[in-house]
Amino acid sequence: MELSNIENLPLSPINDLIDRLNKAVSDKMIIIAGRCKAYFDGRIKSTLESGDRLLVIKKDLSIIMHGPEGVKPLNWQKPDAGPIHFSEKDSALEMFTRRKKTGETLTVMFEHIFTSMIWHALDETEIEIYGDESDLVKYLVKHPELIEEGFEVVRTEFQTKVGPVDIKGRSKGREVIVEVKKRNASPADAHQLKRYVEYFKDTEGKNIRAIMVAPDFPKNVQEYLEKNGMSIKKIPWSEIFPVIQRPKSSKLEDFFGNKKKEKNT
């Protein structure tokens, strides 16, 4: 992988570091790891005392500060945080930003810098979500011909003492059960489908057909299923299932499931 677009910045002299950081703002991603304090002044006021932190400033001027633990940032600013400026203050590297509309300010003071870099990061793709297995079952209910021609759905999530059957239906004059997998089928999946077949034989005296649907089947799994009279159906979900594109959002609180008003800790 080519990483030549990442520049590790020299930490001294500090004036050179400040100059390169200021030139990178809004043009490149800035990453600084070091010991710092942070002060936020706005609708609420907060002080983050000295600790080891990772500061990321993105090209859209969103700011995220992480500590050594946890997924949620210790401090963050949404895109277009405001003019971001680096300077030297009391022998420390200071990052300062003021949001234009609200006047809220964030100041980060680095007492010691372990490493700093600028990265000409590019990403023109969006997240693609293919849904979970329940979504795939719903899709098959709407398109039963994908299982096999003439297949009719009778019930979904049919409860048994050995677990829920994804789809119960009829095809070619016989009752059929269908197990749906998002990933490639595993030996455990094959054994579970066999348990369903045995359940219907023991409790209802039915020699029911069984089909497993998955993107692919390892050779040993396919051989086991076929040896026990069960069928396979390969369905490449990534090719046929409607792709759901997650829209780009500037609301970091949405990512963390926090619908409350903006909060900086």
Short description:
This protein is an alpha+beta fold and 265 residues long. The protein has helices at residues 14-24, 133-142, 187-204, 219-227, 237-240, 252-255, and strands spanning 6-8, 29-41, 45-57, 63-66, 75-77, 84-89, 92-98, 105-119, 128-129, 152-160, 163-171, 174-180, 209-214, 231-234, 244-245.
Which tags fit this structure?
single chain, 265 residues, alpha+beta, Protein Yojf, Chain: A, 2 domains, eight-stranded antiparallel sheet, 15 strands, 21% helix
CATH architecture annotation of the largest domain: Distorted Sandwich
Order of helices and strands: EHEEEEEEEEHEEEHEHEHEH
The quaternary structure here is: single chain
The number of helical runs is 6
Per CATH, the class of the largest domain reads: Mainly Beta
Q: What is the first-to-last residue Cα distance?
A: 37 Å
Q: What general outline do the C-alpha atoms trace? A: elongated
Task: Please give the share of residues in helix.
Answer: 10-25%
Uncertain stretches of 5 or more adjacent residues = 259-265
Q: How much strand content do the residues show?
A: 35-45%
Task: Quickly count the domains.
Answer: 2
Question: Tell me about the biggest sheet?
Answer: 8 strands, antiparallel
Radius of gyration: 28 Å
Number of strands: 15
Structural class: alpha+beta
CATH topology of the largest domain: Protein Yojf, Chain: A
**Residue-averaged pLDDT, rounded?**
87
